[in-house]
Amino acid sequence: MTHILHRQIAGTLPVAAGGSGIEIVDTAGRRYLDASGGAAVSCLGHGHPAVTAALHEQLDKLAYAHTSFFTTEVAEKLADRLIADAPAGISHAYLVSGGSEAIEAALKMARQYFVERGETGRRHVVARRQSYHGNTLGALATGGNEWRRAPFSPLLIETHHVDPCFAYRFQQPGESDEAYAARASAALDAKIEELGPGSVMAFVAETVVGATAGAVPPVGDYFRRVREICDRRGVLLILDEVMCGMGRTGTLHACAQEGIAPDLMTIAKGLGGGYEPIGAVLLGRHIYETFAKGSGFFQHGHTYMGHPLACAAGLAVQETIRHDDLLRNVGTMGALLRRRLGERFGNHPHVGDIRGRGLMQAVELVEDRSSKAPFDPAFKLHARVKKAAMARGLMVYPMGGTIDGASGDHVMLAPPFIVTPDQIGDIVDRLGNAIDDVLGWRP
Ligand code: PLP
After folding, report:
1. What is the mean pLDDT of the chain?
2. Best probe residue, ligand 1, of 133, 208, 248, 281 (max atoms within 8 Å of C-beta)
3. In which band, very low, low, confident or very high, does the pLDDT at 281 lie, cut at 50, 70 and 90?
């Protein structure tokens, strides 16, 4: 009997009781290898002593001070850290409590920026199909996952979507990466033209697509082309790095690997590593200056923004990643994970694609490899794999609707940055066995 409205009403969940390193243990004493960091959150694993010590220290000093009355040393230090490492042109951080809040704030910043510049006609948001930007109404409207949007569509603001840059599903046979990148980015230019130049305020994209399509990296110079289109059209580029950012792909920001910087960037998840709820919008100097010289404020705010405990967690997590040189481990363990996935699934009849960056990798499951035909969505393959993996003491992050929000299945892996080679081997073995348990196939 529970009084919580859980995510799923049917069924019972194990009760998490403790965690250390990359394991969670439940009240029955069962241990689970956290190969997905929850939902790509726990970048330092569980019970990291440097983070828990920083939280104890902050709690003993000050738990909460409302941001309309005070700033705090810990929030200032976190912002200093974030800006010191930010992409070119980013000058300030706006601290919130999670990814959806960050997206909502970024959308409002984009709109207020144009209002203050007198370009009040700029109101359209363009994003991509099969993206996820959060579940609050603005973020949900921005996201391009049909299944998530459908029941709430009458409540959603008008937004516009173009196809993502998704090589396995949309690159034509024989089409070069450069040609595909040009075609995929041209869809944005065409959409801006269709909506009317001067009416679009922002293009929103996950640099590496996370939950909805499963660790889909961009191809060729797609994002350099997107940057050029946004500049030419006077549209702000909002990169959503809530999942793929803060080191997950091997560089602190995923966009560093694309050679571009956004006007606004959202981060969360790995920022605080799950130790406290925290997110942020990183904003360009031009946006900050427009507010500073104009109205003098950003017309927004939340009770818990810049919460001292959340900032202490974020600061401790980010300092630990630097101090322990963990991005190097993301690179080497990411390459090892990719190799091991290739060995285990490269010839698997039901694994159509293995993709990702760093410690954000996924396998896409298909009924038929040559036609790329997905399994019948009614089979709920992704849910079965999750259950089979949990039975083998493995946490992975599977999702259905990979292709278009309705069909397709993938399994995402996003282990903590502290993962070891032995644990990578264990993760791939258990995942392989879990998938084969469900599909009744053995290598
Ligand atoms: N943006 C992306 C890319 C995400 O992956 C998520 C969450 O999965 C969000 C936004 C929303 O973040 P939150 O669940 O913290 O609101």
Report:
1. 97
2. 133
3. very high
CATH number, position 218: 3.40.640.10
Q: Which domain holds residue 235?
A: 52-323
- 340, 351, 359, 365 from 426: Cα distances, Å: 10, 19, 15, 20
* Same-domain check for residues 139 and 150: yes
List, chain by chain if needed, residues with CB within 6 Å of any ligand 1 atom.
39, 98-100, 103, 132-134, 206, 210-211, 240, 242-243, 268
Distance of CA 325 to the CA centre of its chain: 22
Residue 279 shares a structural domain with residue 300: yes
Shared-domain flag, residues 74 and 170: yes
Please list, in sequence order, all residues whose beta carbon lies within 8 angstroms of the beta carbon of residue 440, skipping any fewer than 6 positions away.
none
DSSP 72-94: -HHHHHHHHHHHHTSPTTEEEEE
For residues 249 and 356, give the distance between their C-alpha atoms in angstroms, rounded to a whole number: 8
Rounded mean pLDDT, 101-107: 98
Closest ligand 1 atom to 139 CA: 10
